[in-house]
Design goal:
Helix content: 10-25%
Strand order of the largest sheet: 3-2-6-9-10-5-4
Radius of gyration: 19 Å
Number of helices: 4
Length: 187
């Protein structure tokens, strides 16, 4: 008995690319179920301070220390990060729900965003939230544009970790939430 080549059994890639994409409404509904850590990506060009709430943030490599953050091309934060090539990624605690909403568009304009919270700077001059669970201070090493967003690869130059043991802020099912201890999860 001969075994067929498993690649030959797959539909042709060209045919798959010609089929319709998933409708945006279905995509959004499905992605609501993907819980994500909530971060504020913040930047400055020396004159303007701006930032946004993001869940599309993840580690990339430990050596060299890099993370990536996806930023919408239409927002003011993208332009300032692209020009200054510096950004901070601030991992929020559950207590920061108000800040997440503020930076997520439910608050004032870009210049007034930083009137709430205590902000510092580390190596690059990007704003770091003083009581974030972790604040990563990055130089944008690479930037790749993909459709409506840019993938910013940040080379981490400094890190600030909050000494407390606060629960992280998460976003799932269209709302802010946090982790529950395993003993509290209903079966």
């Amino acid at each position: 008995m001969t075994t067929a080549d498993p690649i030959a059994l797959l539909p042709p890639l060209q045919a798959l690319r010609r089929t319709a994409c998933l409708p945006p409404s279905d995509f959004r509904l499905a992605m609501r179920r993907l819980a994500g850590a909530v971060c504020i990506v913040a930047t400055t060009d020396g004159q303007r301070l701006t930032g946004l709430t993001a869940t599309a943030v993840t580690s990339l490599s430990a050596e060299p220390a890099r993370l990536l953050a996806c930023i919408n091309l239409k927002g003011s934060t993208f332009r300032v990060v692209a020009d200054s090539r510096r950004m901070s990624v601030n991992l929020l605690a559950q207590a920061h729900t108000g800040l997440a909403q503020r930076f997520g568009g439910a608050g004032p304009g870009a210049g007034e965003l930083f009137e709430t919270g205590r902000w510092d700077t580390l190596a690059t001059g990007a704003p770091i939230l003083r009581d974030a669970l972790v604040g990563f201070d990055c130089v944008v090493d690479e930037m790749m544009v993909a459709h409506s967003h840019a993938v910013m690869i940040g080379e981490i130059k400094a890190v600030q970790m909050h000494p407390g043991n606060q629960p992280p802020l998460l976003y799932a099912e269209g709302r802010y939430t946090t982790l529950a201890p395993q003993g509290d999860i209903p079966t």
